[in-house]
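**Folding the chain**
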Amino acid sequence: MKLDVIKLDGSAADSVDLDDAIFGLEPRADILHRVVRWQRAKLQQGTHKVLTKSEVSYSTKKIYRQKGTGGARHGSRKAPIFRKGGIYKGPTPRSHEHELTKKFRALGLKHALSAKAKAGALVIIENADSEGKTSALAKQVKNLGWKRALVIDGAAVNEGFARAAANIDGLDILPSMGANVYDILKRDTLVLTKSAVEALEARLK
């Protein structure tokens, strides 16, 4: 697959050959769903917690005598049957993370890149160099028509570009090692630098 490479000012630079095994697959929703679900589950805190019978703050005194009342036998008001008593079998802190093999995660990333390429939402730029001026970069982004875009650079993000992009709404930037399925699918446009293309192809081969 061949794509034109542009500069940040919108002018043409050259072209680049993309590996069809990475950018030319037929996207599969089931693979993308599994990888996104794995990512989100990994980020879920799992800190939900309720107070059990032994943890609620209440008197432990027996509320009435055992026999002779005509009612059920009870001890303290901490029992789950009473209002403000302990919760029975409620949620406890746990990890929501589950396993997903490295090969499957890599496959998911290939399908995410292919999905953007197929939708025509993949843009290749020569480099992500900037003087660090937000106003100048914001004007370039507006002229290019990027509204919700993710820019993926090479091994390291250009400092000036990252500083300029920090205050632009809808523009995010990641190094090539930070490329992931969820962030790619979340944005309308995926922007790769030439060095990012080389790094991703080396990573996913």
The chain has two domains: 2-45+97-204, 50-90. The chain has seven helices and six strands. The radius of gyration is 27 Å.
